Amino acid sequence: MTAKSMFTPSDDAFLTQRNLLKPATRRRRLVSSSISQSASLSSSDSGLSEDSRVDTKDFIMIPEFLESETIEWLGWTPKKAAELWNNWKEIQETEEEQGTIFEVDFMSQALGYIPRRDLEDSSSDWEEHMRGWGINEELIAAIMDVEFTDVRCTKSAQYWVTDTMEIRYLSLERIKRESYQRTINNHTIDPGIASSAVP
What we know:
51% helix, 2 strands
């Protein structure tokens, strides 16, 4: 089973040439925040070249492939992400071998390890429970940020973990869909988006 790249080959070359996408490092890519928020880009834009310099603070790190590294990027620890990925591969291989289709999609599999029982415990208990599920420290810290205590207390730990992971996954799907659309549209984009990435 091969993982699906986030960017089509032609879009990858197009964005890399314009310094909006950096080469992969450990199966992760730096992508310009203008791409993660953009509607479109234009190949006719002459404001960008290979020599253009873009400050990496304007970039976000995303997985190179939509499925494998995505599990960790969603908020799981590396160990739990590896376990989830292996389970997902087994499901896919079984489907291929038996010619069957299970009605389990990628996100259902990834979110299936979050307990459904809501916790009514204290904040320290939330942190302990999330660690026990295999949630990484970055996501735990984001959910437990004291600045958002009032908001956090309106829902359960399960809700916030699930909601955050779903939003993160949807953003990756959108980036992938827009890459495909740029390829289909022959890279017709708004020059303002592309030029905003250059200091």
